[in-house]
Amino acid sequence: MMDTTQEIYLDNSATTRVSKEAAEKALYMMTECYGNPSSLHSKGFAAENIATAIVNVTDWDSIRSSFDQAEAAFGTVDVLVNIAGIIVAYYRLDDMKEEDWDLTFDVNVKGLMQMCREFVKRLKAKGLPGNIVNVSSNGAKVCFDNMADYNASKAAVMNLTQSMALEWAADHINVNAVCPGAVDTAMLRKCMDESIRLFGGSVEEMRKTWGPPQLGRLIQPYEVGRVIRFLASEDAVIIRGQSISVDGGNNRANSSSATSPQRPSRCSALPSAP
Asked: Which residues are catalytic?
């Protein structure tokens, strides 16, 4: 029987213990294999060190099953990184559909909360410490035009992170969040396609203007991953309940019509990083 004690578990929402070795492997994956979790299968990267599971964060049974699979493979899961999130549509608030608002909060807030509760329940049962890193967005701080549901959901993640850190500190479970800016992910590229369809322009132009103006490029996933790795480590033990901006200093709301459609437009509800 294969010894799995050294294996590393990574999926869209959770990881195992972030030892130095695990952190280095995670950074490699974010640097070389980023873009889509399924791309890992084609990379052939140390398959014995990775286990994946498809998780519907709005479904309790799916959440429990994902943790069961992780524990079956690696024993204890003691670090949770909540990355799953969606942008449903570009809407002015007075045009927004109730079902789109509900879906955004079901995934971005309720799903995150359910993942955290299941994670903490299992740690408490074993009397073990742990770390949670939630992925919010700089949209929670500066707000994006015509994305009130997304902005509000990510602001809720920030507040929820503070509540979790306060309530679970006595259980030796640390909780923080990151607030990325425009990260080069599948979800952002989908939004670029929609903006081009509505207003024209080019991907090359958007990659320069949607990211931090100081850098003239999009943020790369591994750059966010480095901050997550730190917050999930023992080095961040004194940092609690914080939402760290990872936006290249882009702390201004973007009111450009090229990035913020002025009429209702659906943007595929694509689970991805923010």
From this structure: 150
List of E strands, 149-198:
173-180
No. of H helices and E strands in the chain? 10, 7
Domains annotated for the chain, with CATH where assigned, are 14-266 (3.40.50.720)
DSSP secondary-structure letter at 107? I
> Please, is 63 exposed, middle or buried when counting C-beta atoms within 10 Å of its C-beta (0-12, 13-18, 19+)?
buried
Closest CA relative to residue 123, chosen from 83, 60, 168:
168
Q: For 108-136, how does the pLDDT look when each residue is reduced to its tens digit (9 = 90+)?
A: 999 999 999 999 999 999 999 999 999 99
Q: Which portions of the chain are predicted below pLDDT 70?
A: 1-49, 251-274
* CA separation for the pair 15, 131 (Å, rounded): 10
Task: Find how far residue 136's CA is from the centre of its chain.
Answer: 7
Q: pLDDT digit string (tens) for 166-191?
A: 999 999 999 999 999 999 888 888 88
Closest to 77 (Cα-Cα) out of 87, 85, 86, 67: 67
Q: Tokens representing 167? A: 């309530």
Q: Pairing relation of β-strands 14-15 and 79-82?
A: antiparallel
